[in-house]
Amino acid sequence: MRPSGALLWPLAAALILAGGHARAGGQIVVVMRTTDDTHHETLAAIRSGLQTPLPGLQVNAIDISATSTTRFADASVVVSLGSSAAHVVADSQLTQPVVHSLLSESAWQGLPTQPDRAGRPPAVVLDQPAARQVALLELALPDWRRVALLAGPESGPAQRQLTTAAKAAHFEVREATVSTERELFPALQSVLREPAVLIVTPDSRIFNGYTVQNVLLTAYRHRSPVLGFSAAYVRAGALLGLYSTPAQIGQQTADMILRLLDGQSLPPKQAPKAFEVAVNTNVARSLGIALDSAPSLTAALARQEAGGR
């Protein structure tokens, strides 16, 4: 009986190991933007996480502009960093196992599938779990019981997960759908007509470099704190940030590759395991909000996820 597509990734890895290729000095190829500092930081963590247990394993980076089938010929596993690299790798229709990393869940969902494989290759996505975001709000802002959510073309599933998690925690939820950038600010006015915590999702169609300042200013004028998904959002004016660093994503990606090389089954995607909380004390002061420190919130949230240990 032919193995199902869901089993092809671990089966391929097991065959690689059976031949001794990976442990005898095989090669992991990482497709990335070689001019991107975030990608380099992620790559360094991947190398560290792989070469300690497998010192003979080569981890070689190639730029997305220089990919070809010959560059992948000797690869035991191919890794992509970022959504652009993920599309390049997906379009290459490789026979080797693939791991995508450093991309949003919506970008991963948008990747093409291959006819001979069930679903998409496994990925480490950037999106923080909805339950984690809601838990942070309960820890950091216990007196705020209203959240505001906007969904765009890429973030419908994320909004639904956040809505479910927030309502389960007894938050009042204000939400709106935005189809075009022109609809963004009327929608913001609607969901923030009463002060609420605006949760920004990684939907680049509505929350991007062109809109971020206006989004943050609109929220501030409505006396509404913002929970962002990166340290950059906090520097720009969000009250809180919940995110995973490139090094944390890189280490988790390395762990995923090691499991793959050991022939273990992998989930279709993994949310970040390690994370950081950032706070903007100037915004907190301006809004009259008392906040614990970022390290305290990070530690408290990690303890809560670990069951209080």
From TrEMBL:
Q: Which InterPro entries match?
A: ABC_transpt-TYRBP-like
Protein name from the UniProt record: ABC transporter substrate-binding protein
Classification lineage: Bacteria, Pseudomonadati, Pseudomonadota, Betaproteobacteria, Rhodocyclales
